[in-house]
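Predicting holo structure, 2-acetamido-2-deoxy-beta-D-glucopyranose bound.
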Amino acid sequence: MKAIKIHGSSSSSFRFLSKLIFIIITITFITYIFRSFSSTNVADFTIESSPNNNLTQNIIRPSSIPTNVTEIICKKKTKKKTTQLDHLVFAIASSSKVWTRRQNYIKLWWKPDKMKGYVWLDEHIKNQTSDHSLLPTLKISSNTSEFKDQYNNDESAVRIARVVSETFRLGYNDDDDVRWFVMGDDDTFLVTDNLIRVLRKYDHNQFYYIGGSSETHLQNIIFGYNTAFGGGGFAISYPLAKALAEMQDICMKRYNNLFTSDHRIQACMAEIGVPLTREVGFHQVDVLGNVYGILAAHPVAPLVSLHHLDLVQPIFPNVTQLGSLKILKLAMELDSAGLAQQSICYDTTRNWTISVSWGYTVQIQRGIISARMMEMPVRTFFNWYKSNEQNEFSFNTRSFVKNSCQTPFVHMFSHGRYNSSTNQTFTKYEKFPNEKTRCKWRMANPDRITEAHVTKKRDPHLWDNKAPRRNCCRVLPSEQQHILVVDVGGCRPGEIVERNALA
Ligand SMILES: *[C@@H]1O[C@H](CO)[C@@H](O)[C@H](O)[C@H]1NC(C)=O
Ligand SMILES: *[C@@H]1O[C@H](CO)[C@@H](O)[C@H](O)[C@H]1NC(C)=O
Ligand SMILES: *[C@@H]1O[C@H](CO)[C@@H](O)[C@H](O)[C@H]1NC(C)=O
Ligand SMILES: *[C@@H]1O[C@H](CO)[C@@H](O)[C@H](O)[C@H]1NC(C)=O
Ligand SMILES: *[C@@H]1O[C@H](CO)[C@@H](O)[C@H](O)[C@H]1NC(C)=O
Ligand SMILES: *[C@@H]1O[C@H](CO)[C@@H](O)[C@H](O)[C@H]1NC(C)=O
Ligand SMILES: *[C@@H]1O[C@H](CO)[C@@H](O)[C@H](O)[C@H]1NC(C)=O
Ligand SMILES: *[C@@H]1O[C@H](CO)[C@@H](O)[C@H](O)[C@H]1NC(C)=O
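Done. Tokens:
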């Protein structure tokens, strides 16, 4: 009140008032400093959290600081709880023509009681299936005719590109505690536990666009190494989805000449200025043929997705693709963090190289092959343009071994269970019939082995704030001649895959 008078008052009362204010400020300041020393956390916290940059308030506040530090810290912690499945909203792009068939892929990984999400179709489905409760909510995309231009008659690219912003506009706001919007196709198989593990590494309050590139180099050149290939799935943090929803419709009209929906999304991301954060566990699967080579030598990263399941051979022999994924799901449910994680070791008594891709395959090869070779996928597949040359892929690959003695003996995952008495998983891999190859090496023949048994401790925290490292494996003595027994787990101090171990 007195401050108002200052302007018009005499100089003496002004000096008196200045002194008074100075004294008050000094005392408050000293009190404040003292308090900062005696209870540093409390003072720091209050100043930091003060949303109002009001000097008077800040100086007065120390006296009103709550002294219960535990309470403050607890409040902060509950807000920062780690990302869970219910922080995600899934947006799946499909079309009414294929939905009846493709929904079977979604059913494999969708958990209706734990996940929220939508499948976006172009039109209503006449023949609704009865078990809708097992699937995400169906939605019909809004009319995209305004995006049409003379060069581009394909509305589906626009429709699918808009799936994220249409989902956002369903009314998600901060109160819903949504952190990530995840986009996928109807022929995408997602390992959602691993998706969560990947997303936990990133701050959902910032602008993140996370996904994977294509396996085919030329696809990346055409559609961009900065593009998340949507079939492999990608995640957009909440604030970025908001920014995208605000500008996407106008933005996309500028890019009507772009061919795919993924490319159009990237064009808008480029306008916002957000690059792709690449995670190698998202698999677009822009390859043809057999993806065995990729899954047998997966990068040291959690396996998040597989796409184009109708276009590649079933990932397990003698079953349909759907049947294959059901087998893979058994391993996924046993130990998702370890799914398809490779480990390499040697059978020192028989001079064999062993490569385990946990929950998928075990390979036995004659001779000692270095880790750098074994971690490179064998080209059992073609690129998107049916070429099989190594310079056609966006990652290192190797050709089949030339020497018939080194043909791999392949065992495929068939069963798995958890053994509570040893606290380990037990997985069994059965031999895939080999073509008979002639080999003159005077060395034990891996053809005798008909099963591989793998024990492994589960490690759900394998990817939590840890530098990536390949697991180690050890060949254990076996009581039965036809069974190879291997233990897989974290490497012990000093343990490496030593090529000269036998020399
Ligand atoms: C600063 O805080 C004082 C006391 O709470 C208040 O009277 C004043 O209006 C505030 N000024 C501003 C700019 O917020
Ligand atoms: C401080 O807050 C915590 C959590 O609310 C409570 O358990 C504790 O009793 C409080 N301590 C004091 C001294 O008030
Ligand atoms: C719905 O579709 C399924 C599979 O496409 C078919 O077997 C079934 O007969 C259809 N039902 C009706 C009522 O059309
Ligand atoms: C979309 O809108 C256009 C023009 O507004 C209309 O001609 C067309 O029939 C609409 N399409 C659908 C599927 O409703
Ligand atoms: C669990 O492991 C123990 C010790 O290796 C073995 O004796 C037992 O048969 C196993 N149980 C199952 C269910 O695999
Ligand atoms: C696949 O089926 C063929 C013929 O039915 C059989 O010979 C072979 O053993 C089967 N392979 C596996 C891995 O089950
Ligand atoms: C394993 O290989 C080494 C050299 O590579 C050779 O000296 C040794 O005899 C081989 N052992 C067996 C059991 O084949
Ligand atoms: C089993 O192993 C996990 C780590 O893989 C560990 O967290 C857990 O405590 C163990 N449980 C028992 C009963 O030993």
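The radius of gyration is 30 Å.
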